[in-house]
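Subject: Interface between my chains keeps coming out wrong

I've been trying for a while to get a sensible model of this assembly. When I model each chain on its own everything looks fine, but I need the whole thing in one frame so I can look at the contacts. Pasting all components below, labels as-is. Any help appreciated, I'm running out of ideas.
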Amino acid sequence: MSSLSTSLQIALSGLMAEQGALETTTNNVANINTAGYSRQVPDLVTRDPIVEDSLTFGSGVDLQKIESIRDPILASQIQQETQTQGQWNALVSALAQTQGNFSTTAGDIGTAISNFFDSLNQLSTSPTDLSLRQNVLTATANVANAFNTAANRLTSQRTNLDASVEQAIGQVNQLTAQIARLNRQISNLENVGESAGTFVDQRTQLIDQLSAQIDVSVIPTDNTLTLTTATGTPLVAGEQSFALSTQLDASGVLHIFSQSRDISSAIVSGQLGGLLEARDQQIPNLQSQLDTLASGLANAVNGVQAAGFDLNGNSGSNLFTPPPASGAAASLSVSLTDPAGIAASSDGIAGSNGNMEAMYALRNQGIVSGQTPTDYYSSIVFNVGNAAANANSQQSASTLVLQQLNDQRSSVSGVSLDQEAANMMRYQQAYAASAQVISTINSMMQTVISMKAS
Amino acid sequence: MRVNPNPLTDLLAAVAQTQQQINTDLEQIATGQRINCPADDPAGATMLVRIAGKTAESDQFLRSASGLSGEMQNADSTLSSVVTDLQRAISLGTEGASSTVNASDRAALAGELQGLQSQLVSLANFSYQGNFVFAGTATQTAPYVLDSTSSSGVRYVGNSNVNVVTVGDHLSVQANLPGSQLFSSAGADVFQSIQDLITGLSTGSNIDVALSAVSQAYDHINAQRVFYGNAINQLNAQQTFLNTETTQLAEQQNNVGGADLSKVISDLVNAQTSRQATLEAIAQTQQTNLFNYIK
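Reply #2:
Try treating it as a single job with all components included. I did that and got this:
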């Protein structure tokens, strides 16, 4: 049987539901600038009706739960793209530094090689001139310096990349530990049927950050998540996280270990993927190309030296210290100190320039892997420029994709102030209406009470 | 459809992109170069390396050619003095061969010839910037030394080697003629013929034979001078060519690497306009929402 007190209960349920709904709006507005926050909507449901004979009476409204609005597919796409972007970001900044060594300046390798051959041609016009011979020695030293500088910069860049790797690993470990903690909180809440929306937002945010560092694949399990790298190295399993560690190898290069397994070459994306690609592939490639150029040039020059005679009629000795098999560019140095030692002569007489001509001819001979020194150097410039340009455009593309995905995520999960204002008005009006109903019921009750009293 | 309620990050990304464009344009304007690092245009940067190498090479060839040309002009003018001396020797010899001169006249002529001979020795020992140019490759010592035991009165201590200098792609020029080829050539030996003429004048016999030998030497030197004339012409032509090539290379360098300033500046203006417009749009659209209207 319906009664005034039942009506009062119904009106009260309206008041409370609207108040709760208003709270979600307040919370949404408060979190409008919170990173990773997904907007929440109140889930209002009708209370079970009361059936009396042929009549069915409604019994009010309940705020059943507060739901966070998000799209898990989008979230996973964003994580994927964040990994790609992290990789290109790292490569772009590494290669921007690398290519600095190969811009045309007064002291770059290409210019030094040109100047060296120029000095040979000049000496050829007057092979006994000591100042021209000194010029050749100076130009030779400049070639060696240019190689040393470029090679040393590349080596120290690798060392610097190691520092970045170390930092990134630290961040990965911190993030996985946090994710594991959140996993516990989320499963605790969800096990008792509570909404863990905010924690899930936080976790998604942390996984995004983790994706920027390393390749992550997310495997949802009951109420929790397992994270591994793309190649299956575990990072987080439920409430447990697995820290990565680092160790220097014999050559001073940092390796990454997961539970004593070396996974350095198994990391393919994220910032770590980019850092490792620059450190272990791009830069070593360049180094070995520089080594090829340095040793090709030095050996060819030394070979011609040996075939000629110096100013005193002696057989020519090495102009460059014979370079070692590896690290030729870094260790290239001038062996000759006496300008008279340059073997310009081909007949053993001081005034002959025949051997200088032979040495000059190296300029246009395929002495470096079948290419002339300048052509080989220019192909190194192409390789480094091409790698950097490719990384730049990949980074732009990835940034664009990520921006679109974030845009989509925001269109699903972002807080709209207009929407919240409209909701606030709705909830406020509904609240006022329920209050008015209560006041009406109150006056009806007064009527009933005053009836008895009279 | 719900749209992104907070487009600010997108807008800021657009602003950052135009800012990037502005930075690139400014760098190009500041350096005048379109390619400021290899990544700006890898293929172009490669070409620039080659063009720079080629330019340095051409510049060097120019220096070498002009230095060589100077040396050869000096050698040639020395030979021209040799020719003058030989002419004088011939006229002295002709005078001595005449039946009207007596022994004391001939002795006087022989005396002048001796003076000429020592002059010729010093000409053959001509040195340019410390190098004896007629000594073959033995440029550090004077090629002709006086030697009374030699029938010609001198001895050649140079060699018969020549130097060749590269002054262009596939272009090398011979830089010297050795004395053995110039002054001591068999059948046209300058010093032998002069010595014979001196002896002839002193003794009064075989003057005609000696005179014709001097004539042959004279013809030979003249013929050899053609080598220097040709080489100097060749070097001059090569310098003209190298100057043209250097200009062309500079033009090529500019075509590949130079910034198209009018385009860059118009890009810059566009980017600035677009940046301003975006900023204004942000400022305008982000000011209001429904909350502003709830009273």
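Reply #3:
Confirming on my end. Chain B touches chain A through 59 residues (CB under 8 Å).
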